[in-house]
Amino acid sequence: MVVRNTFIALLLAFSSAPALAQHQHGHAPAASPYAGLETRALKALSDEQVADLKAGRGMGYALVAELNGYPGPSHVLELDEPLGLTDAQRSRMQALFRAMKAEAILIGERLIAQEADLDRQFAGRSVTPASLTAATAAIGTTQAALRAAHLRYHLATMEILTQEQVGHYKVLRGYSRVK
Q1: What is the pLDDT of residues 42-77, one digit of tens each?
Q2: Is the pLDDT assigned to residue 155 strictly greater than 50?
Q3: What is the pTM of this model?
Q4: Which of 99, 139, 165, 172 is most buried per CB count within 10 Å?
Q5: Which DSSP category does 175 fall into?
Q6: Is 105 left (phi over 0), alpha (psi -120 to 50) or beta?
Q7: Is pLDDT above 60 for 10?
Q8: Cβ of 105: how many Cβ atoms within 10 Å?
Q9: What span, in angstroms and rounded, lies between the C-alpha atoms of 38 and 122?
Q10: pLDDT-based confidence at 7, cuts 50/70/90?
Q11: In sequence order, what are the residues at sequence separation of 6 or more whose Cβ sits closer than 8 angstroms to the Cβ of residue 84?
Q12: What is the C-alpha to C-alpha distance for residues 92 and 102, in angstroms, rounded to an integer?
């Protein structure tokens, strides 16, 4: 019986040693998923997001339109031939795309500047509750303007395409199986 109790005591001691060692020495905390982002020029925007804003790309701002059957000018122009755009449609779509891009670039540049200002406030330790409220309200307004701009051009695209072309667009983009 003594041998058995000693064996159980030793077994318990050895099996709990790693747990006790971890408890005594602690663990290094897991790295934050944000580790490394502190070196970005703009903390709130990736280099890719900045490039997209400067180029006037959609960045998913118009997904609600796209996925509900409202094509945008960029993708329509990419699918020009399979959609069978007429010369007049192509010309109007190109003008729409140029206008959308120009508008989005202007708004995107404003958003970048606003994010840079907020970043400077935090980096310089000059941010206050009032400046934070003003900066984030301005950023929110600009983000809304950018989204509205992209969505407006999806609406305008619908005025140029026929219903058949819109149906074919959905098939070509993989949103529908039936034309």
Answers
A1: 899 999 999 999 999 999 999 999 999 999 999 999
A2: yes
A3: 0.80
A4: 165
A5: S
A6: alpha
A7: no
A8: 15
A9: 12
A10: very low
A11: 165, 168
A12: 15
In angstroms, the CA 96 to CA 36 distance is: 39
CA angle, corner 80, sides to 100 and 161, nearest 5? 70
Cα–Cα dist 2/12, whole Å? 15
* Cβ contacts of 169 within 8 Å, gap of 6 or more: 71, 75, 76, 79, 83, 161
Joined together, the tokens standing for residue 25 give 């020495």
Buried b (16+ CB within 10 A) or exposed e, 54-87: eebbbbebbeebbeeebbbbbbbbebeeebebee
Provide the residue type at 171 as one letter.
V
Give, for 96, the enclosing helix (H) or strand (E): helix 87-123
